[in-house]
Amino acid sequence: MYKIYGIKNCDTIKKARRFLADAGVDYHFHDYRADGLNDALLQEFIDALGYQALLNTRGTTWRKLPESDRDAVTDASSAKALMLAHPAMIKRPLLRAPDGALLAGFSEATYQNAIQEKS
Question: Which of 45, 13, 43 is nearest to 27 (CA)?
């Protein structure tokens, strides 16, 4: 089963979930706020995609941080600490395929290709 990670009220999450539902894809939604985010799960994401792909530096959460906090992100460890403290800073959505492959972000074409490859 596919698993989608993110925050329930995110517009991009809503689009991705609607796409999966319309495509008839069974999935489980993991809300970082309701279901939590632990160090081990975030480390899995970092190991698979790299912290640069996960850290959303274009969102409001990032922009609202003090400049000193943003400047302190220099490696995977410092980025992970920041993302654990502020899960809204993780690029959304993250889609985990049944085989464990991860995909960051959403576009209909990318999701369609990923689903076709796995079926």
Answer: 13
Between CA 84 and CA 22 the distance in angstroms is: 32
How many angstroms separate the Cα of 36 from the Cα of each of 14, 33, 86, 107, 119? 19, 5, 11, 25, 30
Identified catalytic residue from 4, 5, 6, 10 = 10
Q: What pLDDT is recorded for position 47?
A: 97
Active site residue 84: no
Q: Tell me the backbone φ, ψ of residue 103, rounded to 5 degrees.
A: -135, 125
Token pair in block for residue 56: 């959303």
**39-78 b/e with 16+ CB inside 10 Å = b?**
eebbeebbebeebeebbbeebeebeebeeeeeeebeebee
Predicted TM-score (pTM) above 0.90: yes
Separation of CA 77 from chain center: 17
